[in-house]
Amino acid sequence: MGKKSACLILFAMVISLLPVLPAVAKIDLVTLTDRESVQTTIYNKADLTLVRDKRVLKFVKGMNYLQFSWANTKIDPTSLGLEIKNESDRIDVVDITYPPGTRDMGIWRIKADQACRVPLEITYFTSGISWKSYYIALLSEDQETCSLKGYVKVTNLSGEDYTNAQTRLVVGKINILDKISHLASLQYPYGRPEHIVAKSEMRNIYKKEMRKLDAVQPMMAMQSAMAAPKSKEIQKQGLSEYFLYTIEGTETIPNGWTKRLLSFKADRVKVNSIYKYEADRFGDNVVRFLTFTNTLKNNLGQTPLPGGEIKVFHSIDKNGKLAFVGSDETKYIPVEKKAELNLGNTSNVKIIPKVMAYVKKNIIFDKKGNVSGFDEVKTYEIELSNFTGMSAAIEYIKNLDTSYFNISNMNHTGEFEKTDQDTIKFTIHLSPNSHQSIGFTLTTLRGERRWQQ
Amino acid sequence: MAAIKYYKPISWCIIILFSSIITLHARTSLVSLPSRQDVAIRLENLKTTLVQEKRILTLKKGINKINFSWQSVMIDPESITLQPLSNPEAISILSLSYPPSEAALVWDIYSPEDLEEEVIISYLLANIDGIVTYKAVADPAEQAIDLKSFLVLRNFSGENFEKVTTFLNDKNPFITTTRHLETKRILVSQKQNIPIQKTYTWDALKMPHDPEKSKTAVGVPTSYELTTALLKGKVRLFQDDGQGSTLFLGEDMARFTPKGDTSNLRIGDSRDIVVTQHRIDTKRTNLRRNTKENIQVYDEIIKDQIVMENLKDSPVTLSLIETIPGQWEPFDISMDYTLKDHKTLVFKVKLLAKEKKTLNMHYKILNIFTQKFSRYNRVNH
Predict the structure, then answer these.
(1) A450, B311: Cβ pair inside 8 Å?
(2) B44, B166 in Cβ contact below 8 A?
(3) Which residues of chain B have pLDDT under 50?
(4) Are the CB atoms for A35 and A53 separated by under 8 Å?
(5) Domains of chain B: total
(6) N or C: at which end does chain A have fewer Cβ atoms within 10 angstroms?
(7) Same structural domain for residues B113 and B135?
(8) Quick one: pLDDT at residue A393?
(9) Contact state of B271 with A97 under an 8 Å Cβ cutoff
(10) Which of B237, B255, B270 is the last residue of a domain?
(11) Residues B127-142: pLDDT tens digits?
């Protein structure tokens, strides 16, 4: 966290005599020391950041009072924690009080059995800091491989500057009962026991206070004078069900600012284009999908890839000319799994299904002579055209309205699959600039014919 | 609480009046205004706070009228009791009267002689309560947690309590001070090294069956199972990250868990375990009809396929829950299961790192009614 702003934030930790507190035998002023370090752990699926503020404080023998205030920030007061790192057997964190008539303030009572100087950590949750990942893929000229760059972008709208903070990003979905922003906005930290709903004061938390990077720019200038800067590495570590990205060194992200960092870069990632036709999902269109697998063999596979937007470009020549192919939001991609990017409708591959013959057979009647069932026989011809100049993998998926059907007279030699009780899938590989058609007969049993199998 | 009243401004008083039963004319006088000797607040029932205060009453021989009134606090008048402590056998509480339109009551207490009596006055006080929160830190291997329990004392009662003895349970009371409009969080207990079991649960009734078609990544709910007594309260779970720091894993609301019972605390979702379920086939058989040839009863033969993938680098045990409603019988179910009840099958599937397994369920649902008895196609309790 950075230096205090004159008008925006007072995020102060002071030890003080508190006149509102009852008299105690021993209250002394303890010297406030500078922050040793600060660590932020930012979650991308919840508006939540765990801040760990490390300091060394001097305590006197007896009861010590530590006041902590956080006006104009988005800190969840119920999350405030104080951990004594050493000497924990000699120091007792008795309680924390949120005093009456105040807001955004907590006072810890800390009992020391003798005067000492100890490191401690103040932890809390804040909202307003977020991170997201996104990717840029550059397809090779033959569109068989791509270079893939992953980025992480951290945005700080927390109301507080974070200067020289160790920054960690968490990939994963945690279970959260209450939004941190809601807890931060409550008039009383844990609410009230009665049903009198206090008016929540609307806090002007998005004041546009342009904080300058003056404090850090000289430091950056010094660094650049000393050595040529290089992009930071992001270390990745699996913990429980999550992945932790730890950014090398420390980062300064003032309130209102966003910072982008390169997460990884992978070359020659094998990609496949699949052209799909599925009327129930995409209507009467052919949709191009680009797939790649998150494996070591594919120069990826070190870690899962967090979800995010991926923009796909195509390299047109060796002089750097590019064409934008499309973009999609990827889901979280576990190691060993395939990513499938929807690049939108295309006209370079055409799929035209036609019903070439239609017959009703095996009509049956009930005792009153009414029609009670029949077989519906459709002869399909699917025309496939590939105008891309490259070989194309095509999936023709047909969703049926019943599970009572059969397929016959198939002239397709490629893959055919019944993916579930009412879905069939044909997979066809077409040469560049070629045409092909496949045919089959679909017999659907209607009415009472369904029970006569 | 019934009949809670609210007055302003704050004031408390107990006035003792004396009347003689000997004379016809009531002789009353202000005997004393005893101050509280000792106050306790009891939070065993976290939503309703019981206040108990000790006072010394100076009683005269005969019937003593003790007026108890309150302002600017919300007391349940029907909850107020007075218990003599020094001479409980000698003292008689004759009656209790509620004056009209007043936050007050009057006890008639008979004393056989002049004496000082220590009494305990108990009442339910509104707008002061306790809530419990927990902080748990799991070890890096997720085998055990250290659990800290906190009491959050919320005092909006209108009353300040100095050095009040606070009971969350009969054991380990503590002394604290709580003032009106003040909230205080107090560490009340710590337990080290509580064993936990990490569980992954996929319930076919709750989870999407085809995660590939879902727009966002589908995670399998992940929990810690532990056997330790808990009060209801929010638990925030962390894990030692092995680097001198902790990672926040998630939070859940612990239910009241008596000693010896087991609770589950959900931390989040695992997106590295993928479960896909497809219905491969459904066929109706054994049709039975009425004279109009309408189907009245039939059986259904179903084939389901469930593919489970563990994409993690470590083995896991997945609890897979399938529900088959009504009367059913299996043909071939390719994995062992236990019946939680007549319709709920629980499969405990061990998946090695990077392993994929397929469960095939082939079963028949019998005697499915189509008409007026269709509600009996599911079993109701």
Answers:
(1) no
(2) no
(3) 1-13, 18-33
(4) yes
(5) 3
(6) C
(7) no
(8) 92
(9) no
(10) B270
(11) 899 999 999 999 999 9
